[in-house]
Amino acid sequence: MNKKILIADDDINIIASLKYVLADEGFDIVAVTTPHAAIENLKTTQVDLILLDMNFQQDTTSGAEGLKLVADISALELNIPIIVMTGWATIDIAVEAMQAGAKDFIQKPWKNERMLSAIANQLALATTVKQAQRLSQQNQLLTSQAHPGSRDGIIAKSPAMQQLLSTLDDLALSDMSILLTGDNGTGKSMLAAYVHHVSARSKHSFVPVNMGAIPESLFESEMFGHVKGAFTDAKENRIGRFEMAEQGTLFLDELANIPIAQQAKLLRVLEEQKFEAVGSSKSLHADVRIISATNSDLLADIANSDFRQDLYYRLNTVELRVPSLHERVEDIATLANHFLHTFSVKYHRACPVLSEQAIQALQLYPWPGNIRELSHLMERALFTCKKDTIDSDDLMLPGSESFAEPQTDALDSPDLTLDEIEKRALVKRLKLHHGNATETARSLGLSRSGYYRRLSKYELD
Fold first, then answer.
1. pLDDT at residue 401 in the model
2. What's the gap between Cα 282 and its chain centre?
3. Separation of first and last alpha carbons in the chain
4. If 394 and its partner were Cys, which of 314, 328, 385, 413 is the partner (CB 3.0–4.6 Å)?
5. Bridge partners of 100?
6. E strand or H helix at 93
7. Which residues, 6+ apart, have CB-to-CB distance to 81 below 8 Å?
8. Nearest to 246 by CA among 204, 276, 210
9. Side-chain-facing half-sphere of 453: CA atoms under 13 Å
């Protein structure tokens, strides 16, 4: 979408000239000739930048009307950059305009290069500010909601989870690195967010990174950022994840998927606590707390030369295993009811009740997909059960007589698309290896990153 610029000037010749120059650069133009029209337009139209004359018909020399208009626009708190223009330029007017809220100052008659440069700079700065605000808002949302940031959102009645949370409470007071291990779907990312929320770094950003989703060629740019012109597609400066997490917490999820060639670069940053953006020689300080998570056997990966031993010991100052759902039977009924209530609110449906037989069936089921599988099951049951009470038969648990599992073996059906065949093959192979990502990827001849990209593509992650 083209950027939109509002021009406020009482000289129609000036407006025509600006339209000619700016339209040729791909900008959309809205033009008004009075301060009142400018304010009214801003109340109804979204614009990205304002070019504002300092002198209108009532006073053509002092700039008073322009200064008042700048102040009035600033009072609207729209966060739109303002560039002021005048043919009666003085240092005093420039200073007053900046104090009133303008971001730049151009003298008439202008040079096109100077005008376009000022516009480009202000649009780039406005984008950066918006991104920073968005990141801040996302972080505030994450740490203010009961789920997953605070303990109120963590269901943990079982002794195993109570012990784990007690340990995490103690570790949160320190800055040491934590490695969370355990099966997929056990809630490792939620626990990482919880540690950040109760730590001394909670006022700063919690930045999660799925290491399996980052292409190897973009690893340094994603993690450390890059400067404009560092490579072909580097059209502007980019902040990396380490800089986003400054003074906060960086969560490295799916840790075992970091390419071996990139592990040394990550290790250097952790050891020296500094890094350089791609294309820059300026070192930046890395004041971040590292929490990482994996469902892989890192010691086996080390033995197979897939993971660096020195990086492993740098990341596992404390290593904690998150229990699987079948190890915390006391939490299953509460979790199931929590998901039922959540989805009933989301879909505006009445919330059914789980019968005692249904709860017993849930507690006896082994849950290879852990909490994620339970969540999906409750979402499905909300729609498939037509009664006020969900019975064990309504759950359609795998292994039960009423469970109608998709025919994942039937890959030769003439009605299947290539994507459907690949998805069924992934599901079948994942079940064969009991949810072990490393073994599943190896059996399919895929790299870990390629494997996780396919899981994401078919929403199996």
1. 44
2. 26
3. 32
4. 385
5. none
6. helix 91-100
7. 49, 50, 103, 104, 122, 123, 125, 126
8. 204
9. 9
φ and ψ at residue 348, rounded to 5 degrees: 55, 50
Rounded Cα gap, residues 380 and 395, in angstroms: 8
Q: How confident is the model at residue 412 (pLDDT cuts 50, 70, 90)?
A: low
pLDDT at 55: 80
DSSP 8-state symbol, 56: B
What pLDDT score does 212 carry? Answer: 85
Short-list 284, 281, 378, 334, CA closest to 154: 334
Residue with tokens 């009307």: 65
Distance (Å, whole) CA 129 – CA 380: 41
Contact 251, 192 (CB under 8 A): yes
H helix or E strand, kind and range, residue 318: strand 318-321
pLDDT digits (tens, 9 = 90+) for 358-376: 999 999 999 999 999 999 9
Residues 6+ apart with CB under 8 A from 112: 21
Q: Given the structure tokens 């102040």, which residue do they identify?
A: 71
d(CA 289, CA 195): 10
Domains and CATH numbers, the chain: 4-130 (3.40.50.2300), 145-152+173-323 (3.40.50.300), 326-395 (1.10.8.60), 418-457 (1.10.10)
Q: Which helix (H) or strand (E) holds 386?
A: none
pTM reported for the whole predicted model: 0.59
pLDDT of residue 127: 80
Please give the single-letter amino acid code of residue 91: I
Q: Reduced to 3 states, what is the DSSP secondary structure of residue 402?
A: coil
Pair 224, 218: CB distance under 8 Å? no
Closest CA to 160 of 371, 326, 337, 368: 326
Q: What is the arithmetic mean of pLDDT over 59-87?
A: 82
Write out pLDDT tens, residues 243-253: 889 899 999 99
For residue 57, give both structure tokens. 């018909």
Structure tokens, 323 = 């229990």
The pLDDT mean for the chain works out to 85
Q: What is the mean pLDDT of residues 261-273?
A: 93
Place 140 in a pLDDT band, splitting at 50, 70 and 90: very low
Assigned token pair, 278: 């791609």
